[in-house]
Write a structure and sequence with these properties.
4 copies of one chain form a homotetramer. The first copy, chain A, is mainly α and about 190 residues long. Chain A has 10 helices and no strands. Chain A binds a DNA duplex (21 and 21 nucleotides) through helix 3.
Chain lengths: ~190, ~190, ~190, ~190
DNA sequence: AATGAATGAGAATTCATTCAT
DNA sequence: AATGAATGAATTCTCATTCAT
């Protein structure tokens, strides 16, 4: 049998794409991505049908990464506030410690090269987060709004927080806590 | 390059660029923009030195538009909460009623073609918003955080709200109010 | 107004394509064609949507050229044999004196890049030849065959003849006559 | 390069190449040929040095196939007309019943990837046909022309006939006969 | 020997920008 | 000033060929 397709190489391409898309947007040349991945220009296309496929798969890979990060060590039986804090902290840390991933996701989120179907898959992946927030909002101030609204607020505030943590890493703990408290006041009762 | 004559034409190009960048990102061809503006391909370059200049000026124009919208009819002597609500409502309405502007700004915000200097100019333009929020936060829950943090939270929550208002225009009023209340709980004392 | 599109340039591209396709087939690079035409690579695409459009238009242009050549000076009221000889001589001379056109047509005739629709247009253009041959065959040996069969025989014999005339130009007259006589014996009565 | 083992595999590649070249011309990717042959991309190159070698060998294989077909059951001692008719019928049937082979040969005949030397080898293979036609022409109308001219006319008319037989298989017998009669009138005396 | 992943030199386009009209 | 044709560098993707498995 011939050389098998290498999962490592595929991951290298995705990692390189993360960096390049973060820095230059989805319109960055594929040649730059393959160079950053240390493979030949053509090799990129044995792992991804075309550039759009790469961008869409990158989007999903990043979403999956977030999901796995948020859910790792999820304290399913802890109190609501502790579970929410777990998700919050994980998400802020994820973004703050990996600015390229965060930025790449921001770029792909507004790119028309990511298909609607792919976006749906991505959101579905965060359904668990939404369920959690739903629990928070259920008897809280957001009782009259759809759960997606509270979830969107969580993500938006966390992303805002990420930016500050990134720029002032020494104050990470303070921002993370202040951000969470703001979120908690915003959506929970009392 | 000759001196441009018509302010109308310049505005038509900026308006066209707003639509095109909103739909396809900053990498959309200038030819598409000029076509949408109803001018010849070359004409675009008598009004803007090059594509980067156009994008940067578009970014500033959008920021200016936001600033003017927020500040029009600003009730300088009203209570803090009323002034904050004014800004909030204006901003949400601006984005919800002009999705292309909102989306174009989102695209430019993550584009590396908008220079750091241009971004600074843009933020400076929203200094007044920041000052207002500072007033809110001053004795509020955010007293220990930099005012920019509270201001960023305002913008982030307002932008989240815009999205919901856009998708469910019939519920505009409800979302606008729910969003503002969430913001107010998040940052003000009591 | 801007520089108008130049018919000369378009023709230069078609002429260059004739030479290049004749020599290297339809898979020859467009860059080679534009170079041969003395225009920039991109210019080719302001005159032709894409390579397929160029090849199809070239096919039609060659067919039109043949038609015009055959029909120029057509002795409509001469005897059948004289009219047939006119067409024969013109066609053989066309191919023998312009081997590139002949060869390019041969290449395009077997290329799957020339569409069925385009082929039909091309054949329609030679309807007059077919009508003539029909007259020849009408009471001749081919009375029981469709007129297209006799017409195809004319073209096939003429193309065979072209090849010999090309390789032995000194014997042009002899081959031309011998070919026509063969054709005439093949299809006419007596 | 290792010595190829299986004659079957080599033939499978040539057969696949026949189909693919017939349908898409000599510029069709080797990957398509190997896929059609049911072998790996690399395997093609253990049987043929490179793509040009494959195309040239395919050309010769097709010529050989024609020669063998024409000569199988050749009635060496029959009358001239019967021998000619034998060759004619075999050739027309060969092409009409195997359009891919016919079409592939037509493609290779105008391709610049088939070398002059290879073409000569191919013609030499049909020397016997030429000798036969020479006999026909010897005392016929073509007495003053080189025998190659009469032979070329045979092939051209037969190929024209093939096309009609292919499109109207029910009329095969009629076209085959009409074509031969036309040929015979064209070149024989009386 | 057979496989098919890897390679990088092209290939067809696209596109920002210039410039003749 | 306005126009849009002309330019050629840059871009995405293909493909013959090599080579690790």
């Amino acid at each position: 049998m011939a050389r098998p397709r290498s999962e490592d190489k595929r991951n290298a391409i995705l990692a390189a794409a993360t960096e390049v898309v973060a820095a230059h947007g989805p319109s960055a040349p594929t040649a730059r991505i393959s160079r950053a991945a240390g493979v030949a220009e053509g090799t990129l296309f044995t792992y991804f049908d075309d550039k759009d496929a790469l961008l869409n798969e990158l989007y999903l890979a990043l979403k999956r990464d977030v999901r796995d990060t948020l859910m790792a060590g999820y304290p399913a039986s802890a109190s609501l506030v502790d579970r929410a804090r777990h998700v919050w902290n994980r998400y802020v840390d994820w973004g703050a410690s990996q600015p390229a991933k965060h930025r790449a996701m921001a770029q792909l989120a507004v790119s028309d090269r990511v298909t609607a179907q792919c976006r749906e898959l991505g959101s579905a992946m965060l359904a668990e987060v939404e369920a959690l927030v739903h629990g928070v909002a259920w008897r809280g101030e957001m009782a009259d709004q759809p759960p997606a609204f509270a979830a969107a607020i969580l993500m938006a505030l966390a992303e805002t927080t990420m930016g500050f943590v990134q720029r002032e890493p020494d104050e990470a703990e303070r921002y993370r806590r202040a951000g969470f408290d703001a979120f908690w006041r915003a959506v929970s009762k009392e």
